[in-house]
Amino acid sequence: MKSAWWIVFFLTITALNIAELVKSHHIQILEVFPWLANLLLSVCALKILHGTVFRPTVDNSFLESLLVEESEKKSHVDLGQASFLSKLTFSWINPLLRLGNSKPLSVDDIPSLGSEDEALHAYTKFNDAWSLVEKEKGFNISTNSVFWAISRVYWKNMLLSGVYLSVRTIAVVATPLLLYAFVNFSNLEDKNVRKGVFLVGCLVVLKIVESFSYRHFYFYSRRIGMRMRTSLMVAVYQKQLKLSSLGKQNHSTGEITNYIAIDAYRMGDFPMWFNILWVSIVQIFLAIAVLSAVVGIGVLPGLLPLVICGLLNVPFAKLLQNYQTEFMSAQDKRLRALSEILNNMKIIKLQSWEEKFKGIIESSRRSEFKWLTQTQFMKSYSTLLYWMSPTIVSSVIFFGCVVFKSATLDAGTVFTVLAALRSMAEPVRVLPDALTSLIQVKVSFERINSFMLEDELKREDLIVLPPREDLGHVVLIQGGCFSWDVEVDRPTLRDITLEARVGQKIAVNVLGSVAYVSQASWIQSGTIRDNILFGKAMDKNKYEEAIRVCALDKDIESFDYGDLTEIGQRGLNMSGGQKQRIQLARAVYNDADIYLLDDPFSAVDAHTAATLFNDCVMTALANKTVILVTHQVEFLNHVVEGGQVTQSGSYQELLIAGTTFEQLVFAHESTIGSFDTSSSTNQDDHHMEHSNQLDQNDRPYNKEDEILTNPRIQLTEEEEKEVGDVGWKAFSDYIFISKGLTYSCFSTLAQLGFVAFQAAASFWLAFSVRNSKTNGVYVVGIYTLISLLSAVFVYLRSLFAVLLGLKASEAFFSGLTGSIFNAPMLFFDSTPVGRILTRASSDLSVIDFDIPLAFSFVMAALTEMLAIIGIMASVTWQVLFVGIFAMVSSKYVQGYYQKSAGELMRINGTTKAPVMNYASETALGVATIRAFRVIDQFSSNYLKLVDTDAKVFLSSNATLEWLVLRTETLQNLTLFTAAIFLVLIPKSYIAPGLVGLSLSYAFALTGTQVFLSRWYSSLANYIVSVERIKQYMHIPPEPPAIVEDHRPPNSWPSKGRIELLDLKIRYRPNAPIVLKGISCTFKEGTRIGVVGRTGSGKTTLISALFRLVEPHGGKIIIDGVDICSIGLKDLRLKLSIIPQDPTLFRGSVRTNLDPLGLHSDDEIWKALEKCQLKTTISKLPNLLDSSVSDEGENWSMGQRQLFCLGRVLLKRNRILVLDEATASIDSSTDAILQKIIRQEFANWKLVEYDEPSKLMETNSSFSKLVAEYWSSCTIN
Question: What are the ABC transmembrane type-1 domain coordinates in residue numbering (predicted)?
Fold first, then answer.
């Protein structure tokens, strides 16, 4: 501050000396010495300032005490602890900026939020208001409850931010009157210096008030917007935890994520744009009042075009709202489809459906792009309207002055009118943006409101009673009817009567805690330990026992990182059996009273199933109530058929009763009856020999110390972000990737043309008013013509900027989509879906809307500022010294700020994705979260993620206002210098017209500099989205889909012979080898069974066959063709697979069976008949067009597996791979399917190595697996 003072003092002394020199043409010698002393002081001050701003980067970490606490290291001053002066000048953010200039910032460097800004506080206030609004609303369903709840909470804050903006508006509107006073003062023959100094003092006060009020309006508005945003983000998250099945059908996981990522985020700017809208209208009317005070009734004709231009806003606004609604709808459709595709990319690659699903995304984007184009072109037309209106209004006012003779067209009148109209130009310029933003906010309010009003599970309907020993049951259902949809006539479950007693095992009055294991396993991203503990404290003995009884100990021993092994999103790097056992261990460790197990043994082998049933269900849970739902009849004691409980009792009682249960048992026994029971003699030898090729090596179990001391990247790497200043690289990437250099050049030229014509019009007026004899109509006519020409150029500028933006949108979307669909499976295994979705939603939205606007504004502000300084210098050349100093200093300050701002923007990009990931992950596991009653725990974790994202947002905005306040101060020096010169210079030295011209532009200088700083900073921040999308545009692709020189014959494979030659597989270059030199031959026309323990490598072998992972060594030969020599599409289309996890896509029955549309309805019906689905689908009203919801949730797991069988029956390839295809269906259906497969693929290949009968005769691993399965069936 001292340095700045000496610099300002020196400039002021210099200005006074120059003024004295000009006035008296001499200066006393004694006054030179103080000036020289001040010069030296200012040079020293500049050096100190330079050293402060550009302090070299020094790593001082070695100077810190190794024992210092983390909290003591942080020297940041939080906003809540800052002094008034620190808050006023945004100096509280100085420590963060200094730190950002010494090293790249991390999220831990950013000050934490105050309690009033935390998400919990914001949500609590919103939730209370929401409850009141819902009570008051009554039957008025058209009321937007979300909007009124937000208004109820934040109306006082909105009012305060409006006061800030109103004060600034008064200062802006008063400026033309001050200009009028300056021009009149310059016309005086005998100038009173005191009066001149008083005018300069008034100017200083006005600019200080304008500066501080505007800066705090922006910061406070965004701070309030942040609170609104976080409250809605949490509200949407809490709603999805309470959403009923009916409500969930109307809102997919992708849509819910969109409500958080886009709609709630949009609320961050709502307070700012709302206040800008109404204050801009007020500012226009105040400017009209100023005009009427200056020109009298001459202002009246100008009101007509003003009203016309205002009325034209209405149709523009309606069209923009319609376009925005359609755009958001199309964007929802695209993101919903993309989310589903990313979550199921493995099955898409196995089936070689990439082109089909890529086409779906591109089709949705074409619809989205259509509405984007309409919106952007409409903005171009509105730009022409808004820039023409000041010209037309000023021309009509000047004509009114001539006609009504209400005011003389002298310098004071003309330039006061222009200054007043310039004060109108700013609100006119931002009005379309305010309208557009508020239209988007309105659409988002409606979307969030519709979601918040969806049907939900009422917690008040659930009565939780403490356990009572006098009751004979802990679960009692009497005559229960249950349905997924309340509107259907026939419930899914009818007349259910069920009683469960303490300690009873069974395969809502609820007394006690509940643990739930779903059929489709739900695993969180994190470590195995995190998934088992599920937020509970570690009890080592209890933890190790849970691992043992769930048969996870051998698996954990085989992992490099033990139980600290990281699990990918949705358990991508775990087998189906491992995921199911982790789920079961989570339930066991939870130590609940009641266990609900939904077919937990379907994804594991028979030995593991028997171990789980005996060690876990019957032993570890011996004193618990267990309700087990399964199609494995050896575990049954209730029978459900057709949605009703048809039989109930023990195993023997049900067997004696006959009918349904007897049929199930008979089907089960017929399925396993072909096995030689003599092999059961091997059942005592339960330690299975490791297969020399498929099993992994044993490793020590407890590796925690080693992992903590030698941390390495496991599966999911930390999200990549650039470091350092954004620089011109990202800008050039934006231009050249979009191939928009021509449009950017034309847009720049059009802006130069606009500025040139605007300056020409101003100079014309300045020189014309010198001669009072000049015809007023002629002067105004020429001015109008020149100004209208400038409006054409501003339209061209906007048009070319829009065309550049549209080209960039196409180029970046195309590059991102192509790269994603060509990426290898390893990329999806190691990359959370949220990271990809964030780039495809918010980052792409920035490229669609924000960057073209910011580019246009930066270019416009830069050229205008240069023109302003040039015009001021043409009148008072001395201003150049201060102007150049202010511009250079502003550049220095900008550079100092940008180092931290760029890092904050990048960090913000990495803090947003975890919020979306967590919300998406929660949506998939809502049933488990509810059952374990850990809603509060998940909500707490989500609040932490939201607060982390919010603190980055708040600091980013604080640094921006810090920058703008200082650059504004520097440019005000130029303005004050010009004002001092114009006050002190004699009347004869400069014509009054030029005084008015110089001051009218000088008053616009500060605003233009602020506008430039703000939008340049915004552009630099927006361009980070280009960096982020570009990262995923250059993913190393998988091998080509088609290799033209090595295309196999159409008849390939004609036999189906598969040869594995020393095959070795590893998933990553630094990962251990999983398949270790397999060599064997699968002869044509035979059925090969690959058997082994869960996690032994069976699925890896299938991945190698389909080249989801490329061989590390060796070859796979099919009918004499090395599969690595041909294209992936040629290979995968010739292979069929029924995967371990059955996958359905949102759509219809037809699109799920035949996504490529290659088969007729008759062929589809035949396939459905063979896979036992024809009867079910024939009863549906829409037949083949019947809906399939997200993840196929409206179909059972078994039915989903039957759909997968139907697909391969349609394809009829020579090689069929079954990856535990019958794991999720009952034994009766299993037997039927095996019969169908034998019939349909009689002479085809279905993928220990040898004939089963020979393996059974030896002491092989295969014989032991069969023996264990038979044993489990007979014992249970």
Answer: 159-440, 746-1021
